[in-house]
Amino acid sequence: MQKISNFITRYDLSSYIVFLIAGFIFLNPFPHVTALKEIFFYSTIFFIILAVVSNKGGVNFRSPLSKPFLFIFLWSAVDLLFAINKMNSLHDIYAHLIKYFAVYFMIINYFASKEKLNSFSWTILLSSASFCVWSVSYFYLFLGHPITQQLGIDVFQEIPTNIIGIITVFNIILSLQMLSLERRSRHRLVIIFILALLVLATLLTQTRSAFLALFLALAILSFRNRFILVLIITIFILASFLPVKNRLTPSAILDKLRSDSRINISYTYIEVIKDFPLQGIGFGLQSYADEKFMKMYHDRTDPAQRNPIFIKAPHNFVIDIMVRLGIVGLALYLYALYWAFRMITALIKDARDDEGRRWGITFLAALVAFLIQGMFENVHSGPPAVVFYTLLAMITIFWRIQREDDANDVAGHEKGCTT
To answer: Residue 372: which residues within 8 A CB-CB, separation 6 or more?
Structure first.
């Protein structure tokens, strides 16, 4: 105990906490590093507890998202009474809900200034760039897959191709914002290089959801910066030279809309929702793997509509929430999204400077892009969930900064009046 006391007295715990959070976020895209990520996560918890008990730090839970998060947790806990797999639901409430809430509160407490958030953004960009270099090199050079094959397809089990698109699209949007803020030539060149890597990796995934999300995000960003229009044209030119061009023709898109397996997959899960409309089947993800339970609903689906093979995930975030937590759970998630968009709107409308408005538009583009991709993929666990809660944390930090600046202005004005 004396050694711990001496350590607390001698060192700045917040520096260790910031490093550990950044390390956890840096590792987010990479597969096969779960043990290392757990070490970073639980070490962060340990140092935060040390900081709190030694009065060298604290955790501020005040946020517009605190109530929605609390309500989602409470409903998930109550829903244990109705869960198909109670033990797995109990496990997943911790592993795929509480832990992500913890990541959110870690970030908003220890990256609570513009300077720290700028460093945090660099961590995210360097992480995504490293992942792009590794994944492209490993898949196409080391494993020898042809360039016509989708990046990571049937190889990266922990981060499937569509999930790679979620990582890269978010970071493309973030890199454009960082490029608009950066004035140092060398740093701008680094960001442009990272941006090029991200665009290339996105093109190599050949996922339509990523392109749709990226196109709409860039359309939103183009309202503030005409350079974005140049980027859109560049991406389309690059796409015309890569195999992805065959997946983006009008006929290919129409064929995909008519025969997309996700539509057929959703019919089975809609049958589940019909039987559990309010409470769902419980938060546990392993309920999807209960073949006896799910086969009943797969067989119930109209043969003309159901997917020939049962897929153990709905690949749609709305249906996923409704199956697991029912209409009540979906309403609570929408309540959280309402507050996220409300904070973004406040940034865009009420920011005191152009930087705040730029961040607001960036957050709007990123959240819209994520939700679009969430309509085609499972995003409530793993790397995409970390992206989601990281984005919510960044929105909250800038919203807080704006509120503090406004409060300081009011206080300064009142002080001037009294003197």
So the answer is: 209, 212, 213, 216
